[in-house]
Design goal:
Length: 128
C-alpha cells in the first residue's frame, strides 16, 4: 500500500514536471499555450508544498511532540506559505498569469488526493 502511494506521488510530480517542460516548449512557439505552463508550474509548487508538509509532520511526530517542535512546525509552515504567497503575487502582478490556470493548478492536488482515496476505498471494498 505504501509503495503504491509513493509511486502515485512520483507519477504526479513527474507529470507536472513534464507539463512544465512541454509548456515552455509550446509557449515559445505558441503564446496561447502559456496556460499549460502556468497550470503545471502552480501544480508543481503546490505538490512540493504538500510533500514538504508531509515529510515535516512525519519527522516531527516520530519522537513525540514538544514545545520546540511545535514552534519549529509553526514557523516552517508559515515560511513556506509566505514563499508560496510571494510566488503567487509575482505571477499575478508582474507576470500576468491567467487566473484560471493558477486556480486549476492549486486544485489539482486535492482532487488527485480525493480520487486516490476513493480508489483505495474501492479496492479495499473489493477485497472483502
Amino acid at each position: 500500500m505504501l509503495f503504491s502511494r509513493l509511486a502515485a506521488w512520483i507519477q504526479l510530480g513527474s507529470a507536472a514536471a513534464a507539463a512544465i517542460f512541454s509548456g515552455i516548449a509550446f509557449c515559445l512557439k505558441y503564446p496561447s499555450a502559456c496556460w499549460l505552463l502556468w497550470f503545471s508550474g502552480t501544480a508543481l509548487v503546490i505538490f512540493f508544498d504538500f510533500l514538504a508538509l508531509v515529510r515535516l509532520v512525519k519527522g516531527l511526530t516520530s519522537g513525540g511532540w514538544s514545545a520546540r517542535k511545535g514552534s519549529f512546525f509553526f514557523f516552517s509552515t508559515q515560511l513556506r506559505l509566505l514563499i508560496t504567497g510571494i510566488l503567487g503575487y509575482v505571477a499575478f502582478a508582474w507576470l500576468n498569469a491567467p487566473v484560471s490556470a493558477i486556480v486549476c493548478g492549486v486544485g489539482l492536488l486535492p482532487i488527485s488526493l480525493i480520487c486516490a482515496g476513493l480508489m483505495s476505498a474501492a479496492m479495499s471494498a473489493q477485497l472483502r
